[in-house]
Write a structure and sequence with these properties.
By secondary structure, the protein is of the alpha/beta class. It has 12 helices and 13 strands. Bound molecules: 4'-deoxy-4'-aminopyridoxal-5'-phosphate.
Length: 377
C-alpha cells in the first residue's frame, strides 16, 4: 500500500475505536431508541460516547447533537439559524463567513441569499488567516451569524477564534465554528461560541458520523432542516448509528488523552520530511509557515511541477492530495489558495500532506525520497 499522507481528507481509524465499535454491529445490536434492554444498552453506549466528545471540547453532553458529519452539522448550523431568525422575527440578515471556509459552509450560506440574507465573505492574509480588521468592518448590528473555521482543511492555517468571538459578541452576533480540522488536534475551548461542527473521520474515528455543538447559552437555537422521528432533540431526526457513535466517542477520548503527544509526533515527522527534502536539494516552497499552521500539515509547492502530475507519478508509493481533495477532478483552482493571493499557476503547483498519529519516521523519509525522485533538484 502507498504511504498514506492525506489526513486532511480522512485519518486512519484508531485501533481502539475499531475495537470499541465491533460488538455494536452484531453481538450487542439494538436501536438506541427502542424500549427493550438491547435498546437501552445501545442508548447508554451512545450517551457514554456523547460524554467523551463533550469532554474533548469542554461542553455539556446535552449540548451535542449527532449528525452524519461536519457537512450536515454546518448545514444545520447555518440554515437552521437563518430559519430560526425568520421564524422568531429576529431582523438581522447578514451572515459573515471567512472566504476560505469549507464548501459546506460557503454553499449553505450562499443558499440563503434567495431567502433575503446577505452573505459577506471576509478576506484572509497570505498565510490563510482571516483578516481581523476587515472582519471588524464587516460585522455590524445587522450581523446574525459569524462563521469562521478553527483550522483550514487545505492549508492547515489556525484561525484567531478568540478575536472572532470578541468581535461578534460586541456586535451581538452569534458565532459558529467549523471545528472539523481543529478538534482533536488543538486544545479547543468552545465555551464561548454558540455553535460548532465536528467530524469523526478527521480525528481517527469512523466516517459517516459527526456532531453539532449547540451552546445552551446561545440566544437562538437552529431549527431542524430535516423532519422525522424527533431524535437528537428534534434537531437531527433519524436513527442514531450506535457503532459509529461509539467509535467516535472512543476516538475523541484518545484524541483528548494524546493531544500533546499527537501534535509533537506530527510536527516531528513533518519537520523530518522537510529536512530530508532539503538534504536532497529539492526546491520547494511552504505556502504557510510553522507558527500559523496545525502540526503535521503541509501545503507545499515544487516550482515548475504541476501538482496533479506529481500525485499521479507518486500514485502507488505515496497518497497525497492537490490543493483541495473536495474539488478533486475539477479544473478550478482551490478557492482557498486564490483567496490567500496565490495565482492559478501557483495553486496548480500546490500539494498538501498531513503526517498523522500513525505515520512513522520511515514514512517521512521515504516520502521525501519519492518526491525528490519525481520533482528532481
Ligand atoms: N469542514 C471542514 C473544514 C472539512 O475539512 C470537512 C471535510 N473535508 C468538512 C467540513 C466536511 O466534513 P464531513 O466529511 O464530516 O462531512
Amino acid at each position: 500500500m502507498p504511504i498514506y499522507l492525506d489526513g486532511h481528507s480522512t485519518t486512519p481509524l484508531a485501533p481502539e475505536a475499531m475495537e470499541a465499535m465491533a460488538p455494536w454491529w452484531h453481538a450487542q445490536v439494538g436501536n438506541p431508541h427502542s424500549p427493550h434492554l438491547s435498546g437501552m444498552l445501545a442508548s447508554q453506549a451512545v450517551e457514554t460516547a456523547r460524554a467523551e466528545l463533550a469532554s474533548l471540547i469542554g461542553s455539556d453532553p446535552q449540548e451535542l447533537v449527532f449528525t452524519s458529519g461536519a457537512t450536515e452539522a454546518n448545514n444545520i448550523a447555518i440554515r437552521g439559524i437563518a430559519l430560526a431568525a425568520l421564524e422568531s422575527g429576529v431582523g438581522r440578515r447578514d451572515i459573515v463567513v471567512s472566504a476560505i471556509e469549507h464548501k459546506s459552509v460557503l454553499s449553505s450560506a450562499r443558499s440563503l441569499r434567495s431567502a433575503g440574507f446577505r452573505i459577506i465573505e471576509a478576506p484572509v492574509d497570505v498565510n490563510g488567516i482571516v483578516d481581523i480588521s476587515a472582519l471588524e468592518r464587516l460585522v455590524s448590528t445587522e450581523t446574525l451569524l459569524v462563521s469562521v473555521m478553527a483550522v483550514n482543511n487545505e492549508v492547515g492555517s489556525i484561525q484567531p477564534l478568540d478575536q472572532v468571538v470578541r468581535m461578534a459578541r460586541a456586535a451581538g452576533a452569534l458565532v459558529h465554528v467549523d471545528a472539523a480540522q481543529g478538534a482533536g488536534k488543538l486544545p479547543l475551548d468552545l465555551a464561548e461560541v454558540d455553535l460548532a461542527s465536528l467530524s469523526s473521520h478527521k480525528m481517527y474515528g469512523p466516517m459517516g458520523i459527526g456532531a453539532l455543538f449547540i451552546s445552551s447559552a446561545a440566544p437562538l437555537r437552529p431549527l431542524p432542516v430535516f423532519f422525522g422521528g424527533g431524535q437528537e432533540a428534534g434537531i437531527r431526526p433519524g436513527t442514531v448509528p450506535t457503532p459509529l457513535v461509539v467509535g467516535f466517542g472512543a476516538a475523541a477520548k484518545i484524541s483528548r488523552e494524546r493531544l500533546k503527544a499527537d501534535a509533537a509526533h506530527s510536527a516531528g515527522l513533518s519537520a523530518l520530511f522537510l529536512e530530508e527534502l532539503r538534504s536532497r536539494q529539492v526546491q520547494f516552497i511552504e505556502n504557510v509557515s510553522v507558527p500559523q499552521r496545525v502540526s503535521g500539515s503541509l501545503s507545499l509547492r515544487f516550482p515548475g511541477n504541476d501538482a496533479m502530475s506529481i500525485i499521479a507519478r507518486a500514485g502507488d508509493r505515496i497518497s497525497i492530495s492537490e490543493g483541495s481533495a473536495c474539488t478533486s477532478g475539477q479544473i478550478t483552482a482551490s478557492h482557498v489558495l486564490l483567496e490567500m493571493g496565490f495565482t492559478h499557476h501557483e495553486a496548480a503547483e500546490t500539494v498538501r500532506l498531513y503526517f498523522s498519529r500513525y505515520n512513522t519516521e520511515p514514512d517521512a523519509t521515504d516520502a521525501a525520497v519519492v518526491l525528490s525522485e519525481i520533482v528532481g533538484r
